[in-house]
Amino acid sequence: MRIGLLTEGGYPYATGDARLWCDRLVRGLEGHEFEIFALSRSAEQEQRGRVPLPPHVTRVHTAPLWAPADDFKRWGPKGLRRRVVVGDGRAYGRRERRRFAGHFKELVAGVCTGAPEPFADGLYGLAELARDEGGLSAALRSETAVRALEAACRAPGANRTAQGAQVTDLLGFVDQLERALRPLALDWADRLGRVDVCHATAGGVAALPGLLAKRFCGVPLLVTEYGVQLRAHYLERAGEPLTPAVRALLAAFHGRLAGEIYRSADLLTPGNVHARRWQERCGADRAKLRTVYPGMEADRFATVGEAADQGDPLTLVWVGRIEPAKDVIGLLHAFTEVRKAEPDARLRLFAAPARTAESAAYLAHCQALAAQLFPDEAADAVTVGESPVSFEEIGGPAAPRLADAYAAGRVVVLASVVEGFPVSLAEAMFCGRATVSTDVGAVCEVIGGTGLVVPPRNPRALAEACLALLGDPERAARLGAAARARALELFTVEQNLAAFRSLYLELISHSPARGAADRVPFGLPAEARVPGRWTAPGWAATTEVTA
Fold first, then answer.
1. DSSP string of 508-536, one letter each residue
2. Where are the alpha helices (DSSP H) in 394-492?
3. pTM (2 decimals)?
4. Among 123, 85, 83, which Cα is nearest to 103's?
5. Are 110 and 116 in contact (CB under 8 A)?
6. In this structure, are residues 223 and 269 in contact, taking their beta carbons and an 8 Å threshold?
């Protein structure tokens, strides 16, 4: 069958977990034909180029969310644009302006009051306007849009924080809103109308083209969320310098968008029960939910996992990205208690190089704290001193491969205060390691009784759990063996591919060929559909992929 794969900021450009699971999905389901629709987040991401694609990927469509659309100035000298110009240079006439104003008022009324019906009507109305007349970017930044937003914020029943929005807040929000709604101006919905199943690899903005294909073409929509986009939005925006009014409006918009996606999708596949609870709280129907765990390559850890006695029995291992959410500082304080009871214990932290200035600053702070808490120790007057805590890079001499990091000890520890699906714990389970972790995110679901779990931000409890396993190697070995068996059963690439293969067939079996007289699945060839009037903006590109 033909699969339209929707991505944002990941496959086929970026590296990391989001790219890996999409690449494994596409390569594993070689019996299907894939067409990729990618929303990129930066120019640097596109300049790095795409990953090599298999022959059954026929086309790649790319649209940036980072560049000003349609070559217009974002704001005039007085902050607003009175004349609305579409992507092909034509100005909206009076009828189009009136049509835009009506739909935009519905959209912002739903954002400010929390009502789902006007939000959905406004969203699809703007999409139809973009289909008939061209891009929406200039219109969404026009004076008409700002005045409609101001009226919605001042209306009775509006969000209390939004009611106090100033002009600068309104301008800031419509700027963010234009970027989020940029997929409405794409011609992707018509292209997606030719596929059998539309698969959005994330919620939020990435699923917008799928919503339109579902609405206008009747294409079955599958939405996968390994990290809930609404939760990710809350966490990302918390550190940005936004005013309370802009933050409240953005949170309301993404909440309404998530609700509409969950209502319209035919199937939702959260990556764990933690994500599933978020979706249910946002209005997702339980009958549509199918939990599908991420698929991981077990072969990379086979050598370590089959050698249970490998590694120092008195070494604690931590693997991940060093950032505030991982609470490495709390782990260091917990290790002070471990050292009091077990003087020969060591803590080895393996991490990839810091990507951001914030991560680099946090790493420097952790290293300084470790040097203060654990000064270099020497056995005698002629031996070079060595700290019991070491910060090492994955790919370095001590750990050239990821599996080598887990092989350094027999107990793996996780001290996070915020976590989605704990990838490092699943990797440790593949390596047959006993684990000590904090009860956040999907940790308990992943561990499933094969490790010790303590409350977050509790260094004393974390230290006691670590000491319990360091002092009882047989128990640690039993837990490690059980953890490996659980990981091989639940978290392999094979089970992930089997799940999505079955879901694709389930969707297509309940969605017969659109427009076919005999209603036979796959009875409508792709070339039988005549494209509509969607106006493609100049900033969206399509690439043919040849085998």
1. HHTSPPTT-TT--TT-S-GGGSPP-S---
2. 402-406, 423-430, 443-447, 459-470, 473-490
3. 0.85
4. 123
5. yes
6. yes
Q: Tell me the C-alpha to C-alpha distance, in Å, between residue 465 and each of 233, 413, 469, 481.
A: 33, 10, 7, 18
Q: Which residues contact 508 (CB under 8 A, 6 or more apart)?
A: 1, 196, 197, 220, 521, 522
Under a CB-based contact definition with an 8 Å cutoff, are residues 441 and 459 in contact? no
CA geometry: angle 365, 374, 467, nearest 5 deg: 105
CB 294 within 8 A of CB 494: no
The answer to whether the CB of 127 falls within 8 A of the CB of 171 is no
Running along the chain, 547 residues long, what does each successive block of 10 average in pLDDT?
A: 90 71 92 92 76 92 70 38 41 85 95 90 94 82 92 92 91 91 86 92 91 93 84 63 88 92 95 89 92 92 83 94 94 96 95 86 95 77 72 90 94 94 94 96 94 96 97 95 96 95 92 54 53 54 58
CA distance 314 to 475: 14
Of 72, 89, 76, nearest to 133 by C-alpha is: 89
pLDDT, tens digit, 9 for 90 and up, residues 295-324: 999 999 998 988 767 889 999 999 999 999
CA distances from 306 to 400, 432, 484 (A): 19, 7, 9
Residue 14, C-beta contacts closer than 8 angstroms, at least 6 positions apart: 41, 45
